[in-house]
Amino acid sequence: MKGIFLHSYNGEPPTNTEIQSLLGNSDRNYTYIVATVAQAKQREELAPLHQIVDGKAQIVFHRFLRLLINKKLLTRAEESIALKRAAEDIAKKSPEIVLQLKNDVYSWADALAELAQRGIDLSQGIKPELENSLVNYSVGQLLQSFQNFYQSIQKQSGLQTFEEAAYELLNNYEPTRLVIMEGFTFLTPLQQRFLHECHKREVTVHIFIPYRDTQAYGFEIMQRTYYGKTINIVNPQPRLLPTASFIRANNLSRLQQYLFADEVVETGEPEKIPSVTLEYYSHRNREVAACIKRIKEYLQNGVKAEQVAIVTRARSEFQILLQEEVELHKLRDNEGNIVTLGIQPRQLLLTPLGRFVLTLYKIWQKNSLQMDIDQFEAILASGWLGGHLQRTTEQFNAVKFQMFARCSNRESWHGSLTNLQNLKKELPHDSRLPAASVSEKTIALWESAIAELE
Description:
Blueprint: E1 3-9, H1 16-23, E2 30-34, H2 37-42, E3 52-53, E4 56-57, H3 61-69, H4 76-93, H5 98-103, H6 105-118, H7 128-131, H8 137-157, H9 162-171, E5 178-182, H10 189-200, E6 204-210, H11 220-226, E7 239-240, H12 251-258, H13 284-300, H14 315-329, H15 352-363, E8 364-365, E9 368-369, H16 373-382, H17 387-390, H18 393-403, H19 410-426, H20 440-453
Helix pairs in contact: 3-9, 4-6, 4-8, 6-9, 9-10, 13-14, 15-16, 16-18, 19-20
């Protein structure tokens, strides 16, 4: 039968053998897509040949789409720089909102990405259904300005964002006759579009999700996702797969089975010290304070500092807060020794200094300078040639494709810098071309930096 079918399980996920039985004696003309990297590792052996590249299965949704797109896209760093430039441009016209734009820049990034996933172009105005979902009309105007400037920067580079390229791809996508999707507790706009294309082309889709009636409140998102108005599910109730019961017998497994359940389930003798507790707080500062307070109690009760690990959902958001809270409490173990927060050291090559050193090795080939635009930008951004050069990174990113795309050796870099200098002299003072934003001083700084690198 053709259509989109939903399958659920209330114990362990189906085994590869159980899924293979559903596929039957397939000629591998199917597509297997999962929601997470962890699931991808479990299902590698089920990946069809067209989803294997260099021996690696590309079955996580976004990796699968990138495999199909198969062209160079804007990097996340380039998107971030373009977005900040857009914010600066808008702030020039409306200085009173500069702080709002600066503080919310990543929220605007998410909003622009969602517009791209839905194929919404605001250049022709804001449609009523979108306008009704906005906090107020001024937000729509700002969003319109952001998208217009953001798209103009993309045209200069000749590259697209992942979301835009994925949307275009799905417009003409021809799926395989059979599609398996697993682990999607909710669907992004791109994933919804993918399913719509499969439905339109009368493809058979099997979706596997966990679901337990005793924890209906916790699984409510799945009901809204699959039985709302967005997805055409064939079966009114998901087909229950007879998978194995939970194998693990620990506190994490108990939490998995009984969180949000209506009834308290007795599972033998109560433990004196539960190994899993769940607490919630109204703000991350209170969350951090409670975390450090709990650690302080553990230390005073004899737990060693190296036995404690802090895991957060977003390290960059919590790291400074945690460090400040630790300094405030002056943590000590039960022997009186001072305890500090050990931030896990990154590998050298992932630090700015490491990237700088690695790039230095790469640009010196056959006893001469061999450097492309990405390498020079990485060196500027590292800050190891000085803060004055680091501050020119965004300017370089704005003109690199226009002026320096063919640069490789010292001579070509010098020639392109000279061309940029000459072009600036020809441009009118009010020119909006990226080259007009680069000052004579910046060009001189880049020239001296290249000489210093050599």
